[in-house]
Design goal:
Blueprint: H1 3-15, H2 18-25, H3 29-43, E1 48-49, E2 55-56, H4 58-80, E3 87-93, H5 95-99, H6 102-107, E4 115-121, H7 127-133, E5 138-141, E6 150-165, H8 166-172, H9 177-180, E7 186-188, H10 195-204, E8 213-215, H11 219-227, E9 233-235, E10 244-246, E11 252-262, H12 267-283
Parallel strand pairs: 3-4, 3-5, 7-8
Antiparallel strand pairs: 1-2, 5-11, 6-9, 6-10, 6-11
Helix pairs in contact: 1-2, 1-3, 1-4, 2-3
């Protein structure tokens, strides 16, 4: 398969449009369109849905995975030959891991390998979608079912407890938590975050958290929002701030975390995987 055609497909996917890909590749949009058509003719498949941004078809996802793996091997070869090339490793990781234990894991990777990290923040329940699309080489995920062409390693569990300020409790608490927590203002990371709803259902066996919710898509700001008294939320122990109290001591929501990566004989990817596993063994229960 013509590597230039594959590189063009990756540029279109990464930039989202033919025009932006043309700018990145220093060619005309017409040239980009012709290359994509040539690649589709060679494979006998439609690879892209022409929308804004473009979307990959299942066949397109397979070609993108192939292309990224080919480029990764090319980078590994250049590194092994001592050309001074930087090797890019793309990883999807959830925000709470990124804010707590994941960066120390990357510090374990030997600097001599000259690895450039391309981190994609995504909810742990959705990181495998980026693997399927070929957007990343590895992912921290809550899914134990391997994506096609990937291996799986268990990392551990991250546990969340329901936290709020004492003043918040004084304002809203009226009886046991199951009687007032479903109606109390709640802080939620984003619309994929269901930890708060899951926790309330363990108390009520039916109802979720309140519709009075604040969406705060930043792990650090999320905890500060709770500390500011705007609502309650689920917080991992590594992110606890002074002044927060456990609303239901002893009751937590546990989220298993796994490492999924391409089945690729890449020294750089192997080094990152070993560093992540070593740090997870220390940081995760």
């Amino acid at each position: 398969m013509d590597l230039d055609l594959v590189r063009t497909l990756l540029a279109v996917v990464d930039s989202g449009t033919f025009d932006a890909a043309a700018t990145a590749l220093h060619v005309t949009p017409s040239a980009v369109s012709q290359r994509i058509k040539a690649l589709e003719q060679r494979t006998g498949r439609v690879l892209l849905v022409r929308a804004r941004p473009v979307r990959l078809t299942p066949s397109g996802e397979a070609i993108v995975r192939y292309g990224r793996q080919l480029l990764a091997l090319d980078q590994d070869l250049a590194s092994a030959l001592g050309t001074g090339a930087v090797v890019r490793v793309s990883v999807a990781v959830n925000a709470d891991s990124l804010a707590t234990w994941f960066l120390p894991a990357l510090q374990r990777v030997p600097p001599a390998l000259r690895i450039s990290f391309d981190l994609h923040r995504e909810d742990q329940d959705h990181t495998t979608a980026l693997l399927r699309q070929g957007s990343v080489m590895a992912a921290v995920t809550s899914s134990r079912e391997p994506v096609a062409g990937c291996s799986v390693r268990k990392l551990g569990h991250i546990r969340y407890a329901a936290m709020a300020t004492q003043s918040f409790v004084d304002r809203f608490a009226a009886g046991p938590p199951k009687s007032w927590l479903p109606d109390a203002p709640v802080v939620v990371f984003d619309r994929n975050d269901d930890l708060q709803d899951r926790f309330v259902r363990t108390l009520t066996r039916g109802r979720g958290a309140s519709e009075h919710r604040h969406y705060v898509p930043s792990s650090e700001v999320y905890v500060r929002t709770i500390a500011a008294g705007l609502g309650w939320g689920m917080v991992p122990p590594q992110q606890l701030l002074d002044g927060l109290v456990d609303l239901v001591p002893g009751r937590t929501v546990s989220v298993p975390l796994y490492w999924q990566q391409w089945k690729l004989d890449s020294p750089a990817l192997t080094a990152v995987a070993e560093a992540v596993a070593a740090e997870a063994a220390v940081a995760l229960r």
